[in-house]
Amino acid sequence: MDKLLGHDLKIAFSSATGRLEEFRDAINSLNVFPVPDGDTGTNMLLTMRSAVQATKDACLEDQDYSASEVISALANGAFFGARGNSGVILSQILKGFSDGLRGKEVLTANELKSAFNQASAEAYSSVGNPAEGTMLSVIRAAAEGIQGLQADLETLWRTAYQAAQDALERTPQQLPVLKEAGVVDAGGLGVVVLIGGLLQSITRSETDGSSCLIGLSRFYGNANRGGINTEYLNTTVEEEWGFCTQFIINQADGRNLDLNSVRTHFQKTALSTVVVGTEKNIRVHIHVNDTTSAIKYAESLGSLSDVKIEDMDSQNNAFASDNHGRPGDGAALALLPVTQGEGLARLFLDSGCDSVIEGGQTMNPSIQQIMDAARATAADDVILLPNNGNVILAAEQIAASDSSIHVVPTRSIPQGVAALLSFNPEAPWQENIQSMTNSLSNVTSIEVAAAVRSTKIGKVEVQKGQYIGILEGELVIADNNPEQALLLTLGLTNINTDSIVSIYYGNHKTPVDAQSVASKLEKEFPDIQIDVIDGGQPHFQYLASIE
Amino acid sequence: MSVRIVTDSSADLPRYLIDQHQITVLPCYVVVDDQTLKDGIEIQPDAFYTRLQAEGRTPTTAQPTVADFQKVYRDLVKQGHQVISIHVSAKLSGTLNSAEQAKASLNDGSQVEIIDSKLASIPLGLVVLEAVSILENGADSHEAAVEIRKNLDLHHGLFSLDTLEYLQKGGRIGKARAFMGSILNVKPILRLQDGEAHPVERPRNLQRATKRLVELVHDLAPVQRLAVIYSTDPTRSATLKQELTALLPAEKIIETRFGSTLGTYIGPHALGVAITQVRR
Predict the structure, then answer these.
(1) Of A330, A351, A498, which has the smallest distance from its Cβ to B184's Cβ?
(2) What is the pTM of this model?
């Protein structure tokens, strides 16, 4: 085998998606921090399904298409169908793969090297703070494993597959939370399954069973292995400082732009760097303290457009008002939260949101769903509240591609409520982003859920069926009684006389259950305000916040 | 020729200042249980708030009539005075309408200057007090009116409400509608701007609302005048005043109470601050 046609690739990705489906539960099981958490396997699968569907829509069955055309449709479908952080990163991998094949009629050994290389580069460069020990490390190992190697297509693919497995094996050494839980990275396993699934399809080895993938059970076979901390997926921590600065550099005076040098410059001088584009125009998203220098540098390369600086600081107003500092207009700004459960939806709607996106734990909305909902608001600017750590990256991807959509990175419903109450529909969106983001530091979030498996995280031993208390994303308590788990977790927070405690009870709980917690808490802290609210959320027996 | 100041009872000025500066205050009307009463004359705050919170028909308000204005303007002009008539925002009340019609009906309407404060309650009261001090410096009514209009942007009103229910029932909710919502039981802070109430923030309880009011006032420093106002909780108002003494000595901070007109909309447990900034 020395080349793959567009048609072969279409079949290979469709077939690999089938393999991913077989491994979905295995991948989920690695990711399952004892609550039914991020659902990495499901997210990657749904992203791939959307990708494969796009190739079917774009490339008709009875016609010939180039490798480039098929993969480009695939990447596009993945982008719009991406769910969860793992889905978004996967879509970036496919985008890189597509870039590496641009204009190519067929996929040969040489093209494969550049496609893998681009896939890895794209995944890293699009994510702000790349964390090692994640799917990023796995795709990079696959890419690096075949660079410089002179071999046929199948050998290269086999080598990449092996390198990916080796990298997956190393993830617990790279990411302490994986080691603690005794698992490999879930998203990394997803990447391995896809590479293996593609290999299986192109070598036609399906006929002799799942030979390529059969060894993978070693990565998840041990049923007693625990889950991992939700924070592991957080490869894109938003820095707490600086100004979020975005602009497009446009080619001027016929001088071509050098994407790599621009990217290198900003990676050295800024954080959360996303630099994408061509020699004609480059979109830059950075976080910097010194906005002026960043803009000056960019202006030396070409003409700027779409300049946006998310800060109301007066020194930056000149830029903002010259460009996108549109004054706020009540009707022009919409707040769009992602939420789950009737009570919580009612709460957000009651407090001034025109609509909500249904989703969250175990059901991350796709980029397409979020974009549709944002568009349906018909507002000039939309502020998204992801309200879940696993939706933030998708929301930020949308914001990076659509200058009218903005994100307050809320990781939980309590943070979402804090942001909601700081929202002023009359203020400009920039001002709102700032005050809403500031409000997040004043709220402590608690979640109580049933453990779906036994595990040990840190010093906390959890039996399946017990209720676990999660404080700011960290598992801190396990107890047989959900109310007790909530009380014990509350006991670990800094409640003082000025505190306001809000308890949102889930759809399997009654106001009486919640009130019993409130009464006990009141005995201990007679002066504090305690609000009991019908959240109606699935999965979490209780959500609580301390302000 | 001396100049007299006319305002309406929605300015919520305390009695001693009205007397001291010989301000003519036209009472607005409050309709409670089918009785039409003159605000501050025929009904006092204590009785009003008791009736407001009792079961029964929600009170309504009515502006002073054209005839009320005619009488006041005529008498003052007849006594040889010029008149500056400063009133509640035209977006919130028809009072200015009554005033304008009364002025038009006078033989010598040019003696009367009418000013839309674009404010209500004690923020309007502070505009009136500024008019007093401008006139003390010897300006005639026209010069004073120019100066007052020029300085309207220095006056601010911030209000902390227990509920938006009364504002809504009274049909004055306007842009504050964005802060409607009962599930979280928030305590909205509103700002008077461009003649109407705008939403600012939603603290979770009254203590935090007081704290935020203080911070918002500090953002407006330096100030030349301050007033605090309450509907039913004088202790909350006293706390607020204490917190503002960093900006102005306590004896210079005016304390007053929402009368029946404002009370109809602002409801019980409300608190407010009026600020006149120093021109920078």
Answers:
(1) A351
(2) 0.71
